[in-house]
Design brief:
Helix content: 10-25%
Structural class: alpha+beta
Order of helices and strands: EEEHEEEEEEHHEEHEEHEEEE
Number of strands: 17
Oligomer: single chain
CATH topology: Fumarylacetoacetate hydrolase, domain 2
CATH architecture: Alpha-Beta Complex
Bound molecules: manganese (II) ion
Number of helices: 5
Shape: globular
Distance between the termini: 39 Å
Strand content: 25-35%
Radius of gyration: 17 Å
CATH class: Alpha Beta
Length: 228
């Protein structure tokens, strides 16, 4: 087959312990999945159904690359999150079987133009310009579940310039990985290569060019990105 224009490159992430790579398909993100973060954003964290937004695979910044401060925003926030990498797809996946669809896990940053997201919320508009911009998804290498298991607890931490800004624990997820996959798979047929950003703990805040972000999900991995 040949194309009228060059096809886009396959976006991929390194897989720890191998030189084979994980091809990135779609990126789903869970909103307000830690109670303290829901509160800091002005919402009641009582257990409602989860909600989702998406980023394009082209938003991935792999292998600790630089995060380019985006255009059209003066308030870009960090959100450190555990990322689930789907290896085997499906619809209406039962929570009890959900983890068997997971290839592995990573540490990621759901970078957000908070000013544009806030304006969109106020006007009842979509979040895409606030959430799905270029380079909005720095992500670590993937750790295979075959190697690390399925973490149910562990610190989720983000430091900026060596100072802790966010700290939470995977055990505090309102919708854990199994529940999230089960719910998401009622809305979308999950496909191999899909990523799910599972939500961020409290402490989100702005970054500036020159800042060094260091995210860590205990038992999973670390993500470093310099804001340029
Ligand atoms: Mn997020």
């Amino acid at each position: 087959m040949h194309f009228v224009i060059a096809p886009p490159p396959q976006i991929s992430l390194a897989v720890r312990g191998t030189d084979a790579r994980f091809p990135v398909n779609r990126i789903f993100c869970v909103g307000r999945n830690y109670a303290e973060h829901a509160r800091e954003m002005g919402h009641d964290p009582s257990r409602e159904p989860p909600f989702f937004f998406m980023k394009p695979s082209s938003a991935i910044v792999a292998e600790d690359g630089d995060f380019r401060y985006p255009s059209c925003s003066k308030d870009v926030h960090h959100e450190v999150e555990m990322v689930v990498a789907i290896g085997w797809g499906g619809s209406n996946i039962a929570a009890a079987h959900a983890l068997s669809h997971v290839y592995g896990y990573a540490a990621g940053l759901d970078m957000t133009r908070r000013d544009l997201q806030g304006e969109a919320k106020k006007l009842g508009r979509p979040w895409d310009t606030g959430k799905a911009f270029d380079a909005s998804a720095p992500c670590s290498a993937i750790a295979a579940a075959a190697d690390i298991g399925h973490p149910q607890s562990g610190a989720v931490v983000l430091e900026v310039n060596g100072e802790v800004r966010q700290r939470g624990d995977l055990a505090e997820l309102i919708w854990n990985v199994s529940d999230t996959i089960a719910y998401l798979s009622t809305l979308f047929a999950l496909q191999p290569g899909d990523l799910i950003f599972t939500g961020t703990p409290a402490g989100v805040g702005p970054v500036r060019p020159g800042d060094r972000m260091h995210g860590r999900v205990e038992g999973v991995g670390e993500i470093r990105a310099r804001v340029v």
